[in-house]
């Protein structure tokens, strides 16, 4: 065992050593600057880099700044509380044990041999105990060290370099990659960014899963931004984060998460997606439910602080905590979704419930079913999806803090306009309403003209319910109004704006055949416009340039079939450098025998 441990330490020490730089010609590279970091990118597609992810990186830096500030305040509050109350009995017993071991170790070092059964003297033990007790009362469990960050899939290292150079109070940033070319590029970029980057960022060639498993609870922040699904990294990631630390996770396999391949989504994330206008928010909630599932296996749970759908991916920021008792609340945060196949009606079925009796709480299965076999609005069947995270996906206090930080440093965020617009929209979302309705879908079901969003919002507010927009879809509406109220409002709208007769078996005809129970009031309500809308703040911005989206995986040869992803300029530039374009398909082997 001893020799094995020594070998492992030697391997780790080799990785920790300063990387030996391979000589390179600067003329072969293009310098790309983002924020305060600069990287060298080769003309060939050797190392993955996507300019579009500047939104992702800017958002991560903004959240990381807020996290470091809050984490420091939480530690100070805990330390001051310990100073007032003094050390706990468990802490004192631990100190006694540690004092005993320290004394034995000291004797062993000084005398060369030691009788372990021999007890230390009372005076010596008391002095050590007093010294360590005062240390515990004064510092909590020691001074707060700068937070360590693990970027599990670093590629060029741009994200790690930006963290090190732009985030104040950050500690060591460990950048991992399992590709030798990427690690060489990352180390080259670390050296290219000067002394600050060299002192704070270290790059290792390692499998992220193995590295995180062998470094449990060592990092205050773990960042997962893979090419595709993060599902294979989640189990080790939730173990590598310290208690109260932050896990940042991106998923770019939106076709899977949004219902294109439901069986694949179930195999990767343990949830079945539904295809609807809310599919991108459902993707966020599926990812959160998956992370919670992995955390629960180790008596841990998550608290989402920000969940974002931007461009072609979803990104979640969650705090990870350890508590066997709090973990029992997980079934209360998860729900199945019933989606009508004929209309826009959907209903949530919570997995669990609680029953309180005196001071005890019992955890029981949720009541069900919440829907009949056929939709009560249109008479069609339901599709069932999930389970999804049905608890809040944002912490509004965090969102406010992050948005304030972004606005105070707008010059330091290259994608300021986009991330401030997204955060502004998130700050106005109803935090306790899962999923949303699409006004255009409601009208498409009834084959009617669409009321303006202000008129529809006013009708919902005048009926006594809440309503807001969503950052996922500019036409999406979150509301706590039940579906029968929503359809009553639409029936009243259709009475004032008649539609052509439709076949009686269609969902819209069945809905309109019923008389409204609620008489909608379409008078404009004061709260029908959000503060951002009233101030005409931009909330949904167009892409800054063409071909703003996913890019080709590193190592793949760029050919003419990638024009839709990269644009003709990029494809032509590569082909001109390499000469003739290689054929996209291998030619069929000709029959060597001549035709007779």
UniProtKB/TrEMBL annotation:
Keyword Glycoprotein: no
A biological process from GO: tRNA N2-guanine methylation
GO CC terms, sorted: nucleus
Comp. bias intervals (Basic and acidic residues): 582-596
Keyword Transferase: yes
Assigned EC number: 2.1.1.216
Keywords: Metal-binding, Methyltransferase, RNA-binding, S-adenosyl-L-methionine, Transferase, tRNA processing, tRNA-binding, Zinc
Disordered: region residues: 567-596
Any GO MF annotation of the entry: tRNA (guanine(26)-N2)-dimethyltransferase activity
Enzyme kind, highest EC tier: transferase
Reactions catalysed, as given in the entry: guanosine(26) in tRNA + 2 S-adenosyl-L-methionine = N(2)-dimethylguanosine(26) in tRNA + 2 S-adenosyl-L-homocysteine + 2 H(+)
InterPro entries cross-referenced by the UniProt entry: SAM-dependent_MTases_sf, Trm1, tRNA_met_Trm1_C
Family classification: Belongs to the class I-like SAM-binding methyltransferase superfamily. Trm1 family.
Physiological role: Dimethylates a single guanine residue at position 26 of most tRNAs using S-adenosyl-L-methionine as donor of the methyl groups.
PANTHER family for the chain: N 2 ,N 2 -DIMETHYLGUANOSINE TRNA METHYLTRANSFERASE, TRNA (GUANINE(26)-N(2))-DIMETHYLTRANSFERASE
Name used for this protein in its record: tRNA (guanine(26)-N(2))-dimethyltransferase
Species this chain originates from: Fraxinus pennsylvanica
């Amino acid at each position: 065992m001893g020799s094995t441990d020594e070998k492992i330490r030697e391997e780790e020490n080799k990785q920790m050593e300063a990387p030996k730089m391979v000589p390179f010609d600067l003329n072969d590279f293009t310098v790309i600057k983002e924020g305060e970091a600069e990287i060298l990118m080769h003309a060939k597609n050797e190392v993955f880099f996507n300019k579009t992810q500047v939104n992702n990186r800017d958002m991560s830096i903004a959240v990381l700044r807020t996290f470091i500030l809050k984490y420091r305040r939480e530690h100070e509050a805990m330390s001051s509380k310990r100073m007032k109350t003094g050390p706990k009995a468990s802490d004192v017993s631990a100190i006694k044990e540690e004092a005993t071991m320290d004394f034995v170790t000291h004797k062993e070092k000084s005398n060369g041999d030691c009788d372990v059964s021999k007890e230390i003297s009372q005076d010596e033990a008391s002095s050590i105990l007093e010294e360590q007790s005062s240390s515990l009362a004064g510092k909590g469990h020691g001074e707060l060290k700068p937070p360590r960050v693990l970027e599990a899939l670093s590629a060029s290292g741009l994200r790690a370099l930006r963290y090190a150079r732009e985030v104040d109070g950050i500690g060591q940033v460990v950048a991992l990659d399992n590709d030798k070319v990427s690690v060489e590029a990352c180390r080259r970029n670390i050296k290219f960014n000067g002394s600050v980057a060299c002192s704070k960022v270290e790059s290792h060639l390692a499998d992220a899963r193995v590295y995180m498993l062998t470094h449990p609870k060592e990092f205050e922040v773990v960042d997962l931004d893979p090419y595709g699904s993060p599902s294979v990294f989640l189990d080790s990631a939730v173990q590598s984060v310290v208690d109260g630390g932050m896990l940042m996770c991106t998923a770019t396999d939106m076709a899977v998460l949004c219902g294109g391949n439901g069986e694949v989504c179930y195999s990767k994330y343990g949830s079945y997606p539904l295809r609807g206008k809310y599919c991108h928010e459902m993707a966020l909630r599926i990812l959160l439910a998956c992370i919670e599932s992995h955390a629960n296996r180790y008596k841990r749970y998550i608290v989402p602080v920000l969940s974002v759908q931007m461009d072609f991916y979803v990104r979640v920021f969650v705090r990870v905590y350890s508590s066997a008792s709090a973990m029992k609340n997980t079934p209360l945060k998860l729900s199945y979704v019933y989606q009508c196949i004929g209309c826009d009606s959907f209903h949530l079925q919570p997995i669990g419930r609680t029953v309180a009796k005196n001071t005890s709480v019992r955890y029981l299965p949720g009541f069900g079913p919440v829907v009949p076999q056929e939709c009560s609005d249109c008479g069609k069947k339901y599709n069932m999806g999930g389970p999804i995270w049905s608890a809040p996906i944002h912490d509004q206090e965090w969102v406010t803090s992050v948005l304030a930080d972004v606005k105070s440093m707008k010059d330091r965020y290259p994608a300021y306009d986009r991330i401030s617009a997204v955060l502004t929209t998130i700050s106005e979302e109803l935090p306790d309403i899962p999923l949303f309705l699409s006004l255009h879908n409601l009208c498409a079901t009834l084959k009617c003209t669409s009321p303006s969003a202000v008129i529809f919002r006013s009708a919902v507010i005048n009926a006594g319910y809440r309503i807001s927009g969503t950052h996922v879809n500019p036409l999406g509406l979150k509301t706590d109004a039940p579906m029968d109220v929503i359809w009553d409002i639409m029936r009243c709208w259709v009475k004032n704006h008649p539609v052509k007769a439709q076949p009686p078996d269609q969902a819209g005809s069945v809905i309109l055949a019923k008389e409204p129970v609620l008489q909608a009031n379409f008078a404009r309500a004061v709260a029908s416009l959000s503060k951002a809308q009233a101030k005409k703040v931009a909330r949904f911005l167009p892409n800054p340039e063409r071909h703003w989206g996913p890019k080709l995986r590193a190592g793949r040869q760029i050919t003419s079939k990638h024009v839709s992803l990269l644009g003709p300029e990029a494809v032509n530039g590569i082909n001109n450098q390499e000469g003739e374009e290689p054929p996209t398909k291998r030619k069929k082997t000709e029959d060597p025998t001549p035709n007779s």
